[in-house]
Amino acid sequence: MKMFFQKLGRMPTVLTMPAFAVLLVVFGMPIILLFLSSLNAPVFSLVNYQAFFGQPANIRVLYQTAEISAVATAICLVIGYPAAYLMVAASKRLRTTLIVLVIIPYLTSGLVRTYAWVVILGDRGLINNLLLDLGLISSPLPLIYSRIALYIGMVHIMLPLMILPLISVMMGIDRSLMAAGRSMGARPFDTFWRIFFPLSIPGVRSGCLLVFVICLGFYITPAALGGIGDAMLSTFIASQVQTSFNMARVSAAAFVLLGLAVVVLSIFGLDLSGTQGRTAQSTRNSWRSRPFDLMKRRVSELLTPLRAKRWKAQLYRAGSDSRWSNIVGTVFVVLVMFYLLLPELLVVIMSFSAGSFLEFPPPGLSLQWYRSFFGDPSWYDAAWISIKIGVVVAILSTIVGTLAAYGINRTLPRLRSFLTLVILTPITFPVIVVGIAAYLGLLKLGLLGSMTGIVLAHSIGAIGYVVVIVAATLANFDPRLEQAAKSMRAGPLQTFVRVTLPLIRPGIIGGAVFAFLSSFDEIVVTSLVGGLAIRTLPLKMWEGIRHQIDPTIAAVASLMILVPVFGLIVLYLSGLRPSPAGKRALPDVAA
Predict the structure, then answer these.
(1) Are 426 and 434 in contact (CB under 8 A)?
(2) pLDDT score of 155
């Protein structure tokens, strides 16, 4: 046994084998079979793709999917960039509070947030009731089931995914560069545009790619908030799966959607810093730009005395507009937080309504809808199924993902990047494509409609979350601690259990929490692989939203909002209370 662990220590990639085995069986091989099916293997023809692009309705839906995703991404960027900038500029305590307020809706179920907007924009929702009470309208406005409602719901769900990468990049920008620019006479806007914004481009790229690719696979929000003419390709694929399951046609549609995501990732996922190819391009075009550069240099020389005079006059001038800019910035951040948190808060308030239907403000307070939830076996049975699946997924993903993260961390940098990219593939693919691949894989294994099948289907994405979080913790881990333990004749297993494991415990707990939340909230993959026998809480809630707006759903949504809050509490406690050795070795992780 000792010799086995010694060999294992010399070949860390062996630790990634369990993760890649799950990924290969449930997702890797099925996605290959799916692609071959779209090509009518073994005949190999493009007839399915020709049939897809031969129908104008399909092309219209594909264009509409790209358009809706692009517009939602642009809105998220317009709102998220200034919000992230203002949050980073705030004091450390206020910044931490604002980040937590952004993370809470990010961890909250997307189905719950979609349901919140159904309630707010509905005929008896908050906006229509307010306008009717004020006498501004005589009948409810058709706010829901429209393109505007779809954008409101999508941006609300995706905005945290835009803000968080931007904050991560902006916090790493050296503010002394901005001060240096101001000291050279540059105005605030010039300093921002020429110094800060170029340095924040990686965050813009990451946020836009995340939001756009995820929006491509949106299924629940368009079906709940969009109109008949707002269907997206994922809705089209899901309807084909549920009605006439033609594997070849479904595979072709899925790979068209996947191809769109891959094209965007290939174009914008590259280095956009502008350094690549710049030398060759400047050499090739230097003869064209030389007269223009000479003219620009002459004008700059003429304006130099004027700029020096203005710089000297403004050097010691107090910022007269700083007060108003602070007020505008504060109001903007408050409005963004209001937009992110208000829907969940309204759902919680309306869940205590004493009325017979959902309305705001509620006519009275009552626990009737909570009693309805706990008194109906179908509701709490579904909740118990979701909890059991989530716990098993968290355990499996945490064990397999932690081993994979540890093995990847000990490999060569080039191999490390490749292995990480492969293991994160289910997260980067549109969720409807992942669901169809999992359906095909579990069909081959005979696990469709079983708890085991759902656990495996959920785990292929949850393992990726665990790997990312644990790998981030290992990046701050000092390998000399392991070397010191081995110098004291500790074996590889004993070193891992007694030294490494306690120090990376916060990351392991964080990965387990995210794995549970990703499983507990999953609905698209579950609807495809769960069959009719197993109904999780999100599935039952989705059925209730589609067929009838049962006020009991408000109570269910309120309880689901508590799940990420409890998860944040667990993360907070695990980060503040590591072992004494962890406090010495990992101060950043503990904070």
Answers:
(1) yes
(2) 94
Tell me if residue 405 falls in helix, strand or coil.
helix
CA count, 13 A, side-chain hemisphere, 563 = 27
Say what the pLDDT of residue 125 is: 76
What pLDDT is stored for residue 398 in this prediction?
93
Angstrom distance (rounded) from CA 404 to CA 424: 12
- Which residue type does 119 have? V
Between CA 514 and CA 521 the distance in angstroms is: 11
Supply the pLDDT for residue 558. 85
List Cβ<8 Å contacts ≥24 apart for 10-16.
12/406, 12/407, 12/408, 12/409, 12/410, 12/411, 13/407, 13/408, 13/411, 13/415, 13/419, 14/407, 15/403, 15/404, 15/406, 15/407, 16/403, 16/404, 16/407, 16/408, 16/419, 16/423
- Closest Cα to residue 397, out of 387, 389, 385, 409? 389
Structure tokens at 287: 């003869």
CA–CA distance, 364 with 514 (Å, rounded to integer): 37
Spatial CA neighbour of 169 closest among 272, 322, 278, 71:
272
Q: Which residue reads 């081993």 in tokens?
A: 403
**Which single residue is written with the structure tokens 């507990």?**
520
Residue 526 belongs to what H/E stretch?
helix 524-529
Cis peptide bond upstream of 361, omega within 30: yes
Secondary structure in 3-state letters for 94-130: HHHHHHHHHHHHHHCCHHHHHHHHHHHHCCCCHHHHH
Distance CA 164, CA 95 (A): 12
386/191 Cα distance (integer angstroms): 51
Neighbours of 365 (CB within 10 A): 10
Give the residues of the chain that fall short of pLDDT 50: 1, 4-5, 270-292, 296, 311, 315-321, 576-591
Q: Give CA–CA dist 154/110, Å, rounded.
A: 9
Alpha helices (runs of H) in 134-200, residue ranges in sequence order: 147-170, 176-183, 188-191, 197-199
* Amino acid making up residue 158: M
Sign of the CA dihedral with 192 first, then 171, 212, and 230 last: negative
Residue matched to tokens 């109109």: 227
pLDDT at 503: 74
Secondary structure letter of residue 353 according to DSSP: B
Q: What is the pLDDT of residues 332-389, one digit of tens each?
A: 999 999 999 988 888 888 888 887 776 667 778 888 888 888 888 888 889 899 999 9
- Residue with structure tokens 């494509």? 433
- Those residues with Cβ within 8 angstroms of residue 448's Cβ, 6 or more apart along the chain or in another chain: 439, 442, 529, 531
Q: At what angle do helices 233-242 and 247-268 cross, to 10 degrees?
A: 160
Burial 211-229 (b: 16+ CB within 10 A, else e): bbbbbbbbbbbbbbbbeee
- List helix spans (H) across 134-146: none
**And the tokens for 384?**
């118990």
The CA distance from 31 to 209, in Å, is: 22
DSSP state of 16: G
Residues across the chain: 591
